[in-house]
Amino acid sequence: MCHTPLMLPLKCNYSLSSSSFLSFQFKIGLCQLSVTSDKDKNIAHARTAIQDAAAKGAKLILLPEIWNSPYSNDSFPVYAEDIDAGGDASPSTAMLSELSSLLKITIVGGSIPERSGDRLYNTCCVFGTDGKLKAKHRKIHLFDIDIPGKITFIESLTLTAGDTPTIVDTEVGRIGIGICYDIRFPELAMIYAARGAHLLCYPGAFNMTTGPLHWELLQRARATDNQLYVATCSPARDTTGGYVAWGHSTLVGPFGEVLATTEHEETTIIAEIDYSILEQRRTNLPVTKQRRGDLYQLVDLQRLNSN
Amino acid sequence: MCHTPLMLPLKCNYSLSSSSFLSFQFKIGLCQLSVTSDKDKNIAHARTAIQDAAAKGAKLILLPEIWNSPYSNDSFPVYAEDIDAGGDASPSTAMLSELSSLLKITIVGGSIPERSGDRLYNTCCVFGTDGKLKAKHRKIHLFDIDIPGKITFIESLTLTAGDTPTIVDTEVGRIGIGICYDIRFPELAMIYAARGAHLLCYPGAFNMTTGPLHWELLQRARATDNQLYVATCSPARDTTGGYVAWGHSTLVGPFGEVLATTEHEETTIIAEIDYSILEQRRTNLPVTKQRRGDLYQLVDLQRLNSN
């Protein structure tokens, strides 16, 4: 039932990225950090949380969206760092690089405002166990929404959208990255699954309106439809801030089951990921093989153009 | 942000099918029927339920998956009807046609086993208010799953899969049809949304394993991602049967909110649908316009080939 027209790369043809991960187990740490208006304090605070999570055995640590700055269009230009210049131009990512190497862990570094030339991005950096920057994801779908009387935010007033999906091979598997609003677009998760992702990481700061409506739902949907793990990490809630985050950082398994979650206070979740479950779920419900490539195909344009 | 390569029809370019439905409100009836091994009784029983729902004001009535027959590979050939021949060759659909005309309602007739030549299908018939068969959806994705010790079912042992998506303009809006396992494939719902659906109807008999795991989740995900209404209708639970249905027929709104649902006993849900909410939700969260057609595109091959 997996038809293959010649013209298009076919969604059906995906497989686990590497058999070496098929029975891999490890602990993930989701650091739901309190974020203040003091960048140095935010960096020091994240450092401590990462050290604590690593001490508890986490081999992969995920930070929240915009963890070094308040979440506001006014703050983004002020707190932005030049990640490519590095060193003093980016103290937030310098800390992540230092710790990933020192602690021999992989860090999916939430996101920070990035300055590049005259543009600003909402950017997630992934550091490997050698401290090197393995990948940089610039939020692809900017958060421009308007629910009158509830939540209005126009990220595109200050930020530029990234122009590429980001999937990265790490020592803890193949990880697809999205930032917050990116999770609303099922196509991105489907592209990552087709490229062999084991896990999707979404740093995200949903709010008090969309959080209760959709935060857990979207994570569970992406995990279930694509039969992979989904991890999210939010800032802790600060009701005195201009933008009040929902919290509820969560790890979801490949059947859409919530494996670990929390409320809105600052905390670190340590939870177990077991990739052998992926193959089991994909055998139970072989939806990938059952897709109807004769009726629909999701085209991954970057992949198409690179072939 | 909605880039348009020339080569492919673009997901971004969708709009509501018809402005005449933009402020349309009506009642839907979801008849969660008990199903027995007596076909005549099942037909008489469905007739009564439809009449009752129409008397309560339902202008659209949805029946369960396989409502005229037990749900088993042994039963499908025995209970199958030749829908195209009609009349005495298909008493189940003859009843639906008669009632839709008599009561001036639209019926999305759940599904029945269909015989066509030497093949069997799991088929949903849609009747308009004039009693005419408007569309026939043959389940596209057959239910072949194996969760050892929980649920194993191989529909493809007896059934043939349909070969086309089914979307139909009715007096109560543009409706996309899927049957049960079809709901697991996000692409089908996305195709329907791109073709301007207001509402997706999924007759479905999830089971006691996948029901609690995924039934509500998948409905809410399809509704939220595509910003449309989703209605489902299951048979009532019969714990003495070979296949035990989860029940929980449900209506979900375009923000993924459960508007009406039930447990597993026989009942009819009457609930209100208001299409003006669709435009409101799509303005609140304009995800369709925010899709990244430069990065991914879902190709609807039937539509592509017809252009």
Describe this structure in words.
Chains A, B: Keywords: Hydrolase. Chains A, B: InterPro entries: C-N_Hydrolase (IPR003010), C-N_Hydrolase_sf (IPR036526), Nit1/2_C-N_Hydrolase (IPR045254), UPF0012_CS (IPR001110). Chains A, B: GO terms for molecular function: hydrolase activity, acting on carbon-nitrogen (but not peptide) bonds, in linear amides. 2 copies of one chain form a homodimer. The first copy, chain A, has 307 residues and is of the alpha/beta class. Chain A has one domain: 4-Layer Sandwich (Nitrilase/N-carbamoyl-D-aminoacid amidohydrolase). Chain A has helices at 39-55, 75-79, 91-103, 186-194, 210-226, 276-284, 287-290, 301-306; strands spanning 25-32, 58-62, 106-108, 112-116, 119-127, 133-138, 144-147, 151-154, 166-170, 173-177, 199-203, 229-233, 250-252, 258-261, 267-274, 296-300. In chain A, the strands form 3 sheets. In chain A, strands 1, 2, 3, 4, 5, 6 and 15 form a 7-stranded mixed sheet that branches. In chain A, a hairpin with a 2-residue loop joins β4 (112-116) and β5. In chain A, α1 runs parallel beside α3. The longest helix of chain A has 17 residues, at 39-55. The model of chain A is unreliable at 1-16 (pLDDT under 50). At the A-B interface, β7, α4, α5 and β16 of A face β7, α4, α5 and β16 of B.
